[in-house]
Amino acid sequence: MECANRQLLAFGGSAIEQLPIADADISLYQQVDLGQSYDDLLHELINDTVWRQEEITLYGKTHWQPRLTAWYGGKDLNYCYSGISMQPRPWSQTLLKLKARIESLVAQGFNSVLLNYYRDHRDGMGMHSDDESELGRRPVIASLSLGEERTLLLRHKYRKELVTFKLPLPSGSLLVMKGDTQRFWKHGIMKQKQRCGPRVNLTFRTIIEKQ
Predict the structure, then answer these.
(1) For the segment 37-68, what is each residue's pLDDT rounded down to a tens digit?
(2) I want to staple 88 with a disulfide (CB 3.0 to 4.6 A). Which of 9, 58, 73, 208 is the partner?
(3) Residues with Cβ within 8 Å of residue 139, at least 6 apart in sequence
């Protein structure tokens, strides 16, 4: 799918693209002001985050997940996906500042963040939807990219006539997925042959707390 029909809007000094994707509500902030340089933030997050590498089982075989992850948020906001259970670490000051800036931009509150660290071209994330029950029926997910530009693939779950949407995510960009996006679409970051540097992706989200 080509990107020629994207609608450009202006908001708070940032350009926003409303992506023309059926059965989805997705917007892309081209570059957001984070209060310090993107490179400084990238290196700080790489060095200061408590990273984990999880094991996943696919087709009866166990593999190491091809990236590092970390889960931060409020107390008892556990998150489970693909058979992996994550307990939150307390917010750092850097993550709290980033959360406040993202919340101000998208007019949405978040109580947790999943960080993914793609160390080089050999790291990636398979096609999936963020449709776990603890995220609710129509979750709002704000995805901040820092570091090397990688391409996000978006593929409809049911409508085979819709081609895969390829979306480059440069450093400092913010992708916001909401509405029925997770219900109808999968997304992922593929490994690539071309060498590249590190990338950190922060996906701010809201876990529905059990009553």
Answers:
(1) 999 999 999 999 999 987 776 667 777 888 99
(2) 73
(3) 130, 131, 177, 178, 182, 205, 206
